User: Fold this.
Amino acid sequence: MRFTLRWSVLLLIFVALPFIFTGDFVRGLLNQFLIFSVLAVGMNVVFGYMGHIPFGYAAFFGIGAYGSALAALKLGWPFWATFILGAIIATLAGFFIGWISLKLKGAYFAITTFGFMAILHVICKNWVDFTRGPMGLYGIPRPSLVELIFDTNLSYYFLAMACLVLCLYFADRLDRSPVGRAISGTRENEELSQSIGISILRYQLVAFCVSSFMAGLAGALYAHYFRSIVPDLMTAYYSLIAIVMVVVGGRGTLFGPLIGALIFVILPEYFGMTGPTRMLLFGIVTLVCIIGLPRGVWPAISSAGGFFRGEKPV
Amino acid sequence: MPEWALWIQYVLNGVVSGSTYALLGLGLTLVFGILWIISFVHGEFFMLGGFLAFYLLSKFADVPFLLSIPIAMVGVGLLGALLGKLTINPIRDRHWEFPMLSTFGLSFILLSAALMLFGGDYRTIPTPYNETVFRFSHFFLSAQKSIVILVTILLFLALRWILIKTSFGRNLRATAQDRVGAAAVGISSSFIYTWTFGLACAIAAAGGVLVGAVFNIDPYMGQTGLLKGWVVIILGGMGNVTGAVIGGMTIGIVEALGTGLLGSGWSEAIALGVMITILLLKPQGLLGVKRGM
Assistant:
């Protein structure tokens, strides 16, 4: 009962948001919020549920963006196909990278994925014939479905919202499924999980692939929203902001990443910050949260007697 | 110039850039080996060292270049100790991810502050030693580049001396072995955390000055430098000081040869490929000992 109530409230808020904030600028911000939420939800699967830090996460974001943009530009595929293609290529890359990196633990895992991302970045920058290198891709078409063209901020909002809600629902189902329990189990105690017959590598690989699928989807959404992409999408910056969104919002909670994304998209705009000052704000918010609010904003809200109780403790 | 001489010249240049990687690796390996912190802010101190020396030397023309290295080291070392005390000390007993995330935040803050204060341009630290070039049969080495190599060797020896001979070094090693045990015999963890972090920042600052004099400096140099530093200490073994120098030299030489073979765009990928291979085959590094994390 609570479950359906929670989702209907969430959906209601999501549908109402663009009609409460009708300005085109604010709707654009809401779109950014949704895109980065998808990224953060995917990060939460690995970082929150599984307990590993994937520094190379932005690799999948970039792969999704490039896969989808190249399919749209070079092959002229319709958007639903390019979105799926981008996400699937990201998942395959996630399978490959995860299969290799998950044999390592902790810091070593983090750095290995980081290395793969940096290699992909170098490839993307230097393979000029295919990716146009540092010049990036531009003129990526807005998605269209027969007569429905997602060319306004409002229509794109609903497309992005559909993607986000699907990802959220999937992350929630995954977390509650036996697979999700096995994944959380490996986070709490690897030896114990292994001793009761959980194949750590297999379950963690599933989580890693799911998360790279979401990152790829976020990348595709990003590419078709901003309509131009550069290889710098695959740099540590995007991994870090995704990690920071999850940490600030509430690690391992379902809605925490959304709060984190909201803070990180809306706050700089509210203060009119761009470029370096935006990064300064990110740094300060991160430090304050790490030192003062280590469990994140969402658990703080929900333990303050919130309506959405019953989240898994961090 | 015969073909083989060209390759030896590449190796020589590799040793020069390898020296700066080694300086980055020395600090990182100290922070990881003793404090068990994966520092993401290390590259920013490397960058700040370069900028401190740049402003010092361009504002005050009569400061000799060699004096700017210790000044930058002291300045950045003190800043590092202060920031370490503020942001890492309060959370040092938590899971290793928390201090690491806090270094992310610090790195964002310092990078953006540098962008706002210094702008994004490339600059070269003024130095009189770039004109003098030594020639050994077919190879060339400028005086500035020899200074880079010499300072690296000196700092490495000094760090080894500090770690092995001084009481501060003994306290550091004791903390590295067993933090609780060290605290029980009266070694203040807070003191060790603050000053080890400061020491690591000081070494990075020296690297920044040397890079700025031979190549150039810009606010983003810390980000690329950090990556190199990671490759170096993974190769040499995390927490191993000698390994950091050997790793730095190896990466420098491999990259220089790779640039000769494939062009500069791909040389970064070679270093990263080496890093991933080492991590998978021998995660403790070439000289490291295995430890849990």
Summary: Residues 183 and 189 of chain B are 6 Å apart (CA to CA). The first strand of chain B starts at residue 133 and ends at 136. The mean pLDDT of chain B is 84. The beta strands of chain B are 133-136, 139-142.
